[in-house]
Structure formats: C-alpha cells, structure tokens
Prior knowledge:
By secondary structure, chain A is α/β, with parallel strands linked by helices.
Amino acid sequence: xxxLLRGGRVIDPSQGIDEVADxxxxxxxxxxxLSAISREDVEVFDCSGLVVAPGFIDMHVHLRxxxxxxxxxxxxxARAAAAGGFTTIVAMPNTDPxxxxxxxxxxxxxxxxxxxxxxxxxxxMTKDMAGQEMAQLGDMAEAGAVAVSDDGHPVQSSLIMRxxxxxxxxxxxxxxxxxxxxxxxxxxxxxxxxxxxxxxxRGMPAAAEVGMVVRNILLSELAGCHVHIQHVSCAGSVExxxxxxxxxxxxxxxxxxxxxTLTDEAxxxxxxxxxxxxxxxxxxxxxxxxxxxxxxxxxIIATDHAxxxxxxxxxxxxxxxxxxxGLETALPLAITKLVDEGVLTxxxxxxxxxxxxxxxxxxxxxxxxxxxxADIVVFDPDAEVTVRASExxxxxxxxxxxxxxxxxxxxxxxxGGRVVSGELRAASRERVLSAG
Amino acid sequence: MEAKxxxxxxxxxxxxxxxxxxxxxxxxxxxxxxxxRPVKKVPALRGKxxxxxxxxxxxxxxxxxxxxxxxxxxxxxxxxxxxxSVVKGExxxxxxxxxxxxxxxxxxxxxxxxxAPHFAARTVPSNVINAGDDMHEHPSQGLLDMLTxxxxxxxxxxxxxxxxxxxxxSRVARSNLWGLTKMGATVRLAGPKTLLPPEVEKLPVETYTxxxxxxxxxxxxxxxxxxxxxxxxxxxxxxxxxxxxxxxxKERLRRAKPDVIVMHPGPMNRGIEITPDVADGEFSVITxxxxxxxxxxxxxxYLLLGGGSNVGTA
Lengths: 436, 314
C-alpha cells in the first residue's frame, strides 16, 4: 500500500533535511519516488502545519516484563512509546529474570514483535545483574541484543567492568553504563546538597556519578569498546565526557528530560514522583547538561522511562521506588525546555532522539532515507498540551510533570508504515489513517 | 486565651512564622502554670482522641506527648511498631486510614523516614504533629529548647546559641536552627567535619569544627547526643578522641558567657559528649527542658485542636 504525507515540515537530521516536503510510504518503507503520487491507490494525508520526522528512538526504557507486569508490560510500554512518538525502544535488563541469557532476550524480542513498534533488547552485563559473573554475552548478541547494560545495578568491581567491556567490545556491543559509586550512595534517596540537608534526607553526591563516569571511560579505553554513559545528570559528568571526546575516546552520552528540567527542589514537598536515580540535581547542573546538549557532548535524549505502581510511590520517601515515566512527556519537554529556550534547534533536538541513538546502537533506523523502514512521527510543535498522567497509555502514573502545560503534541506515530498511535487526516477524501 | 494556630499540622519550624512561634511559646508558658497545680488537668480537649504513632523507639518524647494530652483531658491511644511499616506488612497509608476511620483527631508521628509526617498530613484530614522524622525536624524539641532559653535569658533575640555534636543526623539541630534564627538568635553549629551536613554553609548559621571557638562567648550551649554506632561508620576514630575534641567539659565551658546555660535533648552519653560535672552542674538546665517539653506539647495540642475554651480558669 502507498501513502503520501503531504505538505509537512520534514525534519530529518540524518540527511540534513528541514523543509516543507512530501513523504511517500510504499509497503512499509520510505520511498523517494514521488512520481508515484499520481497513482490511483495512494492515500494522501494532509500534514500542513505539522512536523514529519523519523520516529523517535528511546535507548533507555524499563518495560518491567518479565517479572513486574503490574507496573508495565512490553505491550503497554510500547503503547506509551507510540503515544509519545517513539517507534523504537530499547528495554533495559533489570527485569526478573534479567536477560542474562539467550532465552530471556528472545522472550523480550518475541513479545516486542507483537506490539507494532520496534522493541529491542539490551542484555545484562552480569548474571542476575549481580555484578559478579559475566552474563552470556555471546549468546545474547546472537539472539539480537543490541547492547549490554548494568542499568539499575551498576557494576562496582572495576575488574568485572573491564572484562565485560573487553568481551562486549569483541562482540561489537555497546556497553551502556549507569554510573554510580554505591559506597557513596547507600541509603540515599536524592541529590546531596543543601536541599537534602534541609529535608533531612540522605543524599548522593554528584561525585558518586562523576567518579564512575571517569572510571568507565578509562576502562573502555583499556578494553577497546564503545562505552555509553546513561542518564548524565550533573556538570561533572558532562565535563568528563567532553574531555574524553576531545581526546578521541569512543564514548557517547545521553541525558533525560528530567535532568534538563527539574532540580532537587522538586522533592521539597517530599514528592516521591521526583525521586529518581541519578537524582535531580541543581540549577547549575541543568545549565551544564543544556550546554552539553548544545555543544554535542551529550549526543542523545533518552527517557529512562521507569513505570511504577501507585503502591510503590504512595509511601515514605525512603522506601519509595526510584524512577519516573517519560515516554509520553519527552517530546513536549524537549520542545519547551530546549527548543523554546534556544538551547537546541528543533532539528538538533530531533537528531538527539532519532539518528544519534541509531548511530550509537548501529541501527538502520532514525532516518527518512530511501528504503528505510517507514518509522515516522507527525507532531504539532506549537500545540499546547497539559500533561494528564491519568490519560497515559503507560501503566505508570509516576510523573512529576502531571498538570504541567507544555508545547508539542504528537499527532500520529507510524511504525513500519502502519499508524500505531493517533490519526492522520486524509487530504482529499473523507478518510483517516488511524491506529487500530 | 482564644488563640489558635491557623494550620492543620506541625511538621517543622522551617515553615513557621515568627508570630506562630511566639504564640506557641506564650501558650506554653500558660500551660506551665497548669502543670504547677496540685491537680494537673484541664478539660480543654475533652472528647478529643489523640494517637501517638511511633515507628521508632522513644521514651521521653512519647511520654511527654501523652502527659500533655492527658493534662488537657484528651483520650490517648498509643501505637508503636519496632520495624518500619514495610517490615510490618501494612503500609503507612493503610495504617493511617485505618486509625483515621476510628475517629482519631490528631496523630503524633515519629518515623525513621524524613517526610513521613508530611505524607501523613497529606493522607488524612486529622491534625498531624511531627514528633521527629529521622534527620529532618523535631519541632516540639526545638520549641521546648526555645522555651527553656527564654525562661533563663528572658529573650531569644540577639543570643548566641551553640549546638555541638552530630549535626548531620540531628533533627534537633535543624528544628533549633530554624526556630532560633527566626526569633533573632545567632546559631553556631559545631562538630567534626564528618558530622556537619552537606553544604551546611548555605544554612543561615555559623559553622565550626573547633568547639573552643564555637563556645566562645556563647549564651547557650546545646549538646547533642552522639550515637556510638557512628564511630563504626567511620565518622570519627574513637570515643576518646571525640570526647577530647568535641565533648563539652567544664574547662571548655569557661569560654562561654559567665551565665551560659547548657542543654541536652537526651538521652545523654555521660563522659562522651558531655562530662557529668557539666550535665549536673550549675549551668545545666537539662531537667527544665523535660518539664518544658510537656508544656510545649500541651500548647501545640491546644492550639491545633482546642475549641477556644479558657485554659487559664478551667
């Protein structure tokens, strides 16, 4: 089947495109043969006033399946992703059981194929994510894992990290690292600083993150692998990555909307929805993260989508779960906090959510190039939206942004040529292309 | 006395105004008169039900609140649990809602999690008083310390109050510093660097690691309990060294004003953070603090729950 998205502002940073143009979808792939628009069986959809871009790629989501399906399933997480404009998501390995072997990776990928979007699997670095013994990296790579990670259970032993990096490097797998020196963060629930002092809550110093960023960069050089720094939250980490890049180290870095939007003061009323790890930091850290995004030190915007059930959050701060959902607020936060504030152009912001993560993971997605899979997001960059957690497709309602007024609204998400969320309006005929 | 606090909860002194603190201290002074009577009971809170909900062991604070409630003729039920709500199996939310359904008018909560009383205050419509939430605040202790200083010095404004010890983990230090600075006192925090909280310099206080300098010219020295398990966590090398460098003894106290008063929230480690001759000596007002604790807690309960009945002539 053929479909034409007509008259939208096409932004494809992978090809340096930002212009009003038409996008043709032919049998689930992008076609540049625009002469085809004369064909009888082409459905034409009016995208004027809207942005048409490659579907977003989120290389950092927690889907909770297997093991915690009361928080999220691969199906609901994928629906949340589609609602947020994401067509590709990478499932982090802190599930129960963890994907430390071929079978669990295959399970995640199989469940993912039922969702309509691209659900990719990230293997655990170590068995049971315990940080002790190397997981079945070779088997998992064969099964299709796109990376390995210690997210949620950072590997403390430098020796184990070095060995994993050497082995993953051999397999060509990027090593995604959650950087946290746990000996500096025991019992801590938030950033360490004046706010934690006043609230009487135990804090994680930024040094606990920066120290491990530096260690992991050094070990990656030793091991010869591609290291990726997950959820950069503080100025020191931005600087460490910047330095490493200036020395030619093969390092990439991501941050998440919460780290360019909120400070630790969001925990001021003991709001457990603002409890995440790494923790929300300070105004100076936000500025450093933004500067890192602007100068390219931080390549990627991910979400660290971390759904939790109400009973995980409606408790004392000390026992509340870490994390917040992010898939359905990422675009409006990026537009409102980065584009509107002049930190990034819209094209740069989209690049950090499309071709940059694709490049980091070696995916042939995140582009509207000829014959690429027709993974497309159509959004209105100017529409005002009010965040309504109760309307999330995710099972998680744990967001500190509930009720926030932001700019940027996903109109439709197309994965492999199929509309998986929202709807598009037919230009000539009274038809709509819609999900389901 | 027809005054009432126009707030539902007492969660800390940080968000309290100077006039609110003044009202509480004035009311507490009247309550002390009741406690001096042969029959220490007024009917001000008759028919009100107060629940002390303690997730941490406590002797004096809990007894003090219970005596305060009984002196005002409130009914008191006491619930304590050794472990956390999670260990117990019931969430704090469910515990609160269950007790609320039984008709509790006010909860007095001690909890090992900072902010647990705030959570309670959001969860139930009853009044909530924070009786100590981990390292955060202990407002009734801050108020009773201020009342004790006020009785001895006749003012708070312009005084120099030195708080010595484990500041990092101390809710007493935090409530004192907010309350005292709002009332115009200068607060000095002193202790080993390892037990001064992160970014302490951003608080409206002076900080010292040299206790001699911190005591110099002080009107009040408030000595905090040092928890001995801190030693094993590497905060200081030995009890002996702590006592020598940071303990309050007679010699060190000579640097303070001649009419200095010495306080301690208890329970004391005699011979470690405070020498016995200081604890029992002429400058000590430690037992006054205990008496004032009941008066301050009566004031808090009365100002939150009282229906305007006249305490003075009951």
